[in-house]
Structure formats: C-alpha cells, structure tokens
Amino acid sequence: MFLVLYLLLWLHKQGLQAQQTTNPSAEKSSIPDVNGYDNQPVLVANISGMVDADGVCQCVVYLPDASFPADRVEHLEMWILSIFTDLQKETNKIQEYSSKIILYEDQLANLTVQVENMENSGISFNELEFELVKNEIKEMVILITQLKDSLNGSNIIIDNLFLEIQNLSAAIGELETLDKNNVLVIRREVSALRKQLKECEEAKNQTSSPVIPGSCNHGALLNMSEPFIVQLNWKGLSYKGGAWGKDPEPATSNRELYWQVPLANDFRYMQQYRYYNSYDDLRLYRNPHDGRTSYYGQGSGMVVYKEKLYYNCQDTNQICRVSLNTGNFEMRKSLPNATFNNMFSYAGTPWQDIDIAVDESGLWAIYATEESTGNIVISKLNETTLDVEDTWVTRMYRRAVSNAFIVCGVLYATRSINYKQEEVFYMYNTRTDQDITISIPFSKINEYLHGVNYNPKDHKLYVYNNGYLLTYDLYFYQQTDNS
Fold first, then answer.
1. What is the C-alpha separation between 203 and 483, in angstroms, rounded?
2. Could you give the residue ranges of the DSSP H alpha helices within 121-254?
3. Could you tell me what percentage of the chain is helix, strand and coil, using 3-state DSSP and rounding each to the nearest 5?
4. Is 405 in contact with 358 (CB distance < 8 Å)?
C-alpha cells in the first residue's frame, strides 16, 4: 500500500517538473526512481514564443519521449498482492491459535481443580482416577507440541502453557507416589490375597468328589479355567459374530456333534451353519456338513439340542427350529412379550435380544420385555412345543450384561472389564428366586463375547469370541444343603 502511494507521488512530481519546463530559465531536473534512485536528468531547452494582444507570452513545449515503466508497476502490484495474501494467512493462523490457547487454558484449569481436590479432599482416590488425569495431560502435551511446531519458533504464551502442563504432570506423579492413604498399596495386597485364596479353593475343589456329567450334585460356580483356543471359525476372521458348541444330547449316545454358526459382518443375519461328527474333524476342518435355513436367523443366541438348531427368527420375537441332519424347517413359536430387533440386546453384542440356552433340564430363553423395563427375563421352554412352562423376572438390566448362560437352573451373567478380561458378576437362582452379585474374573482373547453356550455333559463353556472358538472348564463348589 505504501509503495502505491509512493508511485502516485512520483508521477505527480513528474507532471510538476514538466510544467516547469515552460520557464526559460529552467535547467536540468532529476526525477526520483521508485526504488529510491535518480533517473537520468531530463534536458530542457529554451523555447521561442510569441506575445498575444493582451501581452501574454504563449509557447508550445514538447516533453522528451521518456517511456513509462509499466513493467515495474505490474511487478509492484504482484508483490503487493502476494504480501497481502501472506498477511491474511498469518492473521487466520493467529485467530486459530488464539482459540486453541483458550481451550488449552480451560483444560489446564480443569486439571488444576482435579489435582487440588485430590490433594485437599479426605476421600480416597484410586488408580483409575490417576490414569484418567495422566491421559488428559498426555493429550494436552501432544496438542501443545503440535502447536509449537506449527508456529516454527518460540512463543512466550505457548512456552508458559507447556511449562505449567509439565509441572502438573510432576505433581500427579508425586501424588501417586506418596499415596496419602496407601489406598493403592492396600488394594494391590488385597488383590494378591484374593488370588491366593482362590488358588486354595481351586485346589480344595479339585480334591473333592467329581461332578457327575449331566447332574447337579454340586454347588454354585466357583471358578473358570483359562480359555482354550480350538480354532478360527471356518469362514474366517471377518466373521466376528456367531456361536458354536457341542450338542449335549445327540440322537446316538456315542456320537459327537460339534456345530458352528458364523453371522454376517453386521452381527445380525444367520443362514448358513456347519457341523462335524467328531472333535478331530472339527479341528482339521475335515468332513464338514453344511446347511442353510429357509428362514433367516438373527443374532448369536442360537443353540443345538438333540440335533435341532434353535434360533431367533429374523425381525420377530419367534423361536425357529431346524433339523441339522435334514435341513428341514420344523416350526416357529412366539416368545410372549419378548422384545426384538436390538431393543434390549446384550452390551457389545447387537441383535442378540433372544438368547436360547441349554442346561441339565433342557431348553431356556433369556430375553427382556417392555413390562420388565429391560431387566432380564428367564423362561423354561418345552422342547417339543416351544411353549413357555415357567418364567422368572430378575433385577438385572439386560444391557448391563455382555452375555449369560444357565447351569442347573441358575443364571450367570458376565460383563466386560477390559479388552482382555471378563467377569461373571451376577447369578440368579430360579429354584430359590434369589439373586446375588459375585466376582469370577476370566480371560478372553478379544473384547466381545458373542455366543456363550454351556454344555451340561462336559461342564464346559463354548464361547465365540470375535471369530475364534474357545472353551472354558467350569469349577463348582461342593454340594451343600444350601446349594
């Protein structure tokens, strides 16, 4: 902008000098260049004139033929436009950085309040609270580092903000180290003692009388083994939802029937199934028997019992039954008042609104109703007609549960602790109509458990875990009068 004004002044001055050439006494004059240097002097000669009737001298003046510097003016215009564009970019950056700094200051103030509460409050704090604060600090450090890099240099405000974050991180580390109430240390010791106690209980359980297959001569669930990975489902890792298991009551007593049903990638639709007549065939993907259902299934709540496949029919609250051997569709039956289409499915396992289970006494359905406001409902089913023989309503909200299974008429519900840990945390006894919270943690190889099926003949859980087929051995308390 200053260069343009300067150019206009120069052109105006040049016009004034041209007028001065009418003065007979005019001599050489210098015109300043736009770059601050003098051009070559303009030579002015004496010009003859004439006097008119009024005594006024008149003459004609011809200026030298000096070319106008149009190329320099064009260069100046381009230069000014470039400067203006760069200035606009920097202005936008400053506005963006200002808003970010305000955001970081608010986050820092919030973290400061949290630290002050942790220092001054008499309430004990746990390891999770430390981790949450430390994660927020790490996120702020990353953002501040990116901001410093984008500025390509030092900035007092950014440097001070970064220093405050470093001081806050040091304070958190010191608080965690001091641990005023020794809460974390005590909790770790308690956890170690609980682990030792469970190991003693397991050893005691293993020396007790064995559990007879198919019977309930035992108490409640005590513990679970580590997962045993049988194989990946036959359709591959992309089929993360589904179910599998072993038929506890095949038509021939000496027959082994292992089945698996992977779902489509949306965890919803089921049409194909496969079964093997021996464990070796299953492990080797050998001699498979494939089938397709004439009615689509929905969700991973299916089970095989007495060589019949039971599943939730698509877009209904009905239970369908198919013969594995023939592939014939046999019947479908509504489950009264059961919700469907992902209304009250398990947490992390969509479309499993109706979960069909098997225990020592036969078929069960685990579901929810609008009347139960989403709490788990358990119904005993007649295996021939699929009619409901009896129903129990629990106090456990179904969406708070990741999956469930039934052993000897007792419902056991699981929930996710983290990516690698699950916990059996709730049980409901249909014989006594009582529920209780428990804690039986167990490992898993991926986050979500889809199909969880109990087999009463071998006391194992058959779990479909993100495409992998797992088994768990179950351990129970000894039989007591109160069991």
1. 20
2. 127-151, 156-178, 183-206
3. 30, 30, 35
4. no
Alpha-helical regions (H) of 336-407? none
* Six token digits for residue 228: 């045993």
Q: What whole-number distance in Å separates Cα of residue 469 and Cα of residue 460?
A: 13
Cβ atoms of 378 and 430 within 8 Å: the answer is yes
Per the CB < 8 A criterion, the answer to whether 452 and 414 are in contact is: yes
- Record the tokens describing residue 169, joined without a space: 């991180």
C-beta separation of 324 from 273 below 8 A? yes
Element (H, E) at 108: helix 70-120
**CA diameter of the chain:** 147
pLDDT of residue 212: 78
Alpha-carbon gap, residue 143 to 66, rounded angstroms: 60
The two three-digit tokens of residue 167, written as one number: 């001081």
Task: Give the integer Cα–Cα distance in Å for 158 and 141.
Answer: 11
* Cross-strand bridge partners of residue 381: 388
Phi, psi of 164, rounded to the nearest 5 degrees: -65, -40
Profile the chain (483 residues) by mean pLDDT over runs of 10 residues: 48 50 44 45 59 76 60 78 81 77 73 66 53 67 66 62 69 60 53 59 53 85 95 91 96 87 90 94 93 92 97 96 92 96 93 96 97 97 96 96 97 95 97 95 92 95 95 90 51
Cβ burial of 98 (10 Å; 0-12, 13-18, 19+) is exposed
Q: Which residues pair with 378 in a beta bridge?
A: 366, 392
**CA atoms of 165 and 398, how far apart (whole Å):** 42
Rounded CA-CA distance 43/64 in Å is: 8
d(CA 19, CA 4): 23
Q: Pick from 389, 385, 338, 337: which is nearest to 361 by CA?
A: 389
Dihedral of the alpha carbons of 37, 39, 45, 50, in degrees to the nearest 10: -80
Residue 467, pLDDT score: 92
* DSSP secondary structure, 398-451, as one string: GGG-SEEEEETTEEEEEEE-SSSEEEEEEEEETTTTEEEEEEEEEE-SSS-EEE
Please, what is the Cα angle at 352 between 347 and 353, to 5 degrees?
A: 95
Contact status, residue 313 vs residue 386, Cβ threshold 8 Å: no
In contact, 295 and 309? CB cutoff 8 Å: no
The tokens describing 311, both together, are 């599943």
**268 vs 342, 374, 398, CA distance in Å?**
9, 20, 18
Q: pTM here?
A: 0.59
Residue 181: partners with Cβ closer than 8 Å, 6 or more residues away: 124
40's tokens: 């070559």
Q: Count CB atoms within 10 A of the CB of residue 388.
A: 17
Structure tokens at 279: 């464990």
3-state SS, residue 379: strand
Token pair 């029919």 in the structure block, residue: 313
